[in-house]
Queue: 2 jobs
Job 1
Amino acid sequence: MRTRLTEILDVEHPVMLAGMGGVSYAELVAAVSEAGGFGSIGASTMAHSQLVEQMGEVRERTAKPFGVDLLTAAPQDFESKVRDIAKGGATVYVAGLGVPRDVVDLCHELNLLVVNMCGKVRHAIAAVEAGCDLVVAQGTEAGGHTGTVATMALVPQVVDAVDGRIPVVAAGGISDGRGLAAALTLGADGIWVGTRFIATPEAQAVPGYKDALLGLPEDGTVVTRAYTGKTCRVVRNAYTQAFEEAGGTPEPFPMQVLRSIEDGANHLGGDADARDVDPDREFMPAGQGAGAITELVPAATLVERFVDEAEAALARAGRPV
Ligand SMILES: Cc1cc2nc3c(=O)[nH]c(=O)nc-3n(C[C@H](O)[C@H](O)[C@H](O)COP(=O)(O)O)c2cc1C
């Protein structure tokens, strides 16, 4: 399935694995890239040395393109980090929070495409003006840090605002190929998928996380500041309930992250085998699409299914009644 996204990323399928902190490590990233999608390392919870190690592991597993998501737009020693990302073989740098204005030119010198996550039309316009190469329009349905506008409403508005200058990728609540078909129909060039890829054998996840997703109904998530201080969509549990009942006032990001770690409720990016994880208190970012997840499926199979189901859905939609 060729689109502007597959052209610019030099991949076969317009399916991107979200750079999920604590989840998108080398094994999952390489599986998605090797299957013809585009894998992104979620580096937000990694020390820089671990990121370098993970990039090496991706390169051992696949020769295909992959990216790195750093979450913040201006970490310490930003320039040297960006140089290391290019040196590690990544072809895309994703800024999860804010437009990375200061390093766009440097990224381009290093042949790194720059991607910006956007929850509002004005974020997308700022990203285009700063010289970013792609925007991800992420609706409120998404797992993790999220805004208030739904994917169905956001994507066409971002597509219109960007006006063909760069490709737009849709994210938030996409669980199968019907979501890819919908994204293309709304004018996007592909999809950026998080939650669905957590329920794969290759994803890293604390004990109980994948099981929680398999059992979750469509309304089993909540947007809370309990774990990071910023609005984040997670599996609703006793910890989020207690936080809301207590008035829901967090410390600012990232202090609230430390608070939830101290509370023993946040192991994201920590030891995947942590024994002290209580699934009813744990930080488990998840989107509303989780309700559609019924089984663990290998990442490569998911990439193929996304494309096959999208083609079938588009053919069905185009058929006269
Ligand atoms: C566990 C988890 C961790 C995430 N971490 C990040 C992150 O570090 N940086 C980022 O840009 N987005 C992050 N996100 C958001 C994803 O990039 C993506 O936009 C979202 O998962 C898409 O919606 P979906 O989960 O409904 O597919 C995270 C999402 C999840 C579920």
Note: The longest strand covers residues 113-118.
Job 2
Amino acid sequence: MGKRQPSITTENFTAVQLMELDSCSRCGECVNWCPTYDASGKNPGLAPRDKILRWREFMNKSYGLRARLFGPKEIPLAELEQFKNDVYGCTTCGMCATVCESAINTVELWESMRANLVKSGIGPYGKQGMFLKLIGEYKNPYMADNKDRTNWFPPDIKIEDEAEILYFGGCTAELRQRKLALATARVLNKLGIKFTMLGEDEICCGSALIRTGQYFINDTAKKNAQKNIENIKAKGAKTVLYACAGCYRASLIDWPRLTGQELPFKVVHVTEFLQDLIKKGEIKWEKSINKKVTYHDPCHLGRHVGVFEPPRAVLESIPGIEFVEMERIKENQRCCGAGGGVKAGIPDLALGVASTRVEDALATNADILSSACPFCKRNLSDGRDAIGAKELEVEDVIVLVAEAMGIDLSDTPAE
Ligand code: SF4
Ligand code: SF4
């Protein structure tokens, strides 16, 4: 009689990751910091430590000594389904990796587990299964006509056909949170920066597919990255500006991995670009914003890549702003709750995490909770509305820059 096949495979795991599963000391520090575990009412299934221990157990049942001698032990499908629910209840914020005493790169581990489950037909979770079809068919996850990315810009916006600087707007700012795209374009125009954009040739950066373990299907994420890189090169760009933390992280880290090539351009967040101009004295402020402002670090801009100071430096240079910090910031920031496919897949969980982050902001008595990512802004606004904190304004740093430069954004089309 042939031996039973393992219920799970080792696909998508590197040798280091397989060792990482064994290096968890069960200390539980990660559990103390996990935002989705907290927001779920401390559902033990969402605790990062327990996900590692369960996957370790799955591996032992499938490939351990006993499995090698007597054949793999079956893992019931219901158990794998439950694990899927739990591993997708994670925003991939990276807080658990930051505090892990065994230095386990947990985010990469969660993403490998997700890809493994997708390959075996168990993942992804709920509506996340639509990402591939939408991005493949529409080139964006919003089912929008890709022509609408920039054709709505008012006629005063000057975009060059080709330029050394390209603004990669991203699906969310171009198709949904248009105030951010308009603010970025008008700020660059007012500063006399010649820039170009991809318009309808821009394709989703692939972040949603990568974070939810679906990047490998039909090679969609890789093909999109290659196409975007080719189109950016064809525009003559040497520096690409991003106002979306998700696109920024995908371009900087995921595109080179997917394509196996270094990027032929520099990846810069708009706040980094503006900080440089402020240092050179090239930004003239025309208005004061006499408000108390706090700043939420987007996971994909902060903890994932280490851009902490530029948004703060920009805010602190705006006349009138009294900048205040929340208790959990920078490496120890608390996630907004939107990332990792949670906003699309488990919106109630996303809202719960956002509400807690809004409470953090309210504790500072800030008038404005700012961030540097349209996806954070969306979820923090939803969290603000959910707890009825109407007095708190949620706004992007770039929009505040535009306001202080005397730029009018009242003609932004409705979402
Ligand atoms: S990445 Fe963030 S949400 Fe996911 S398990 Fe770790 S701490 Fe929790
Ligand atoms: S912090 Fe690291 S070592 Fe400690 S329980 Fe979590 S994953 Fe394991």
Note: The CA atoms of residues 65 and 71 lie 9 Å apart.
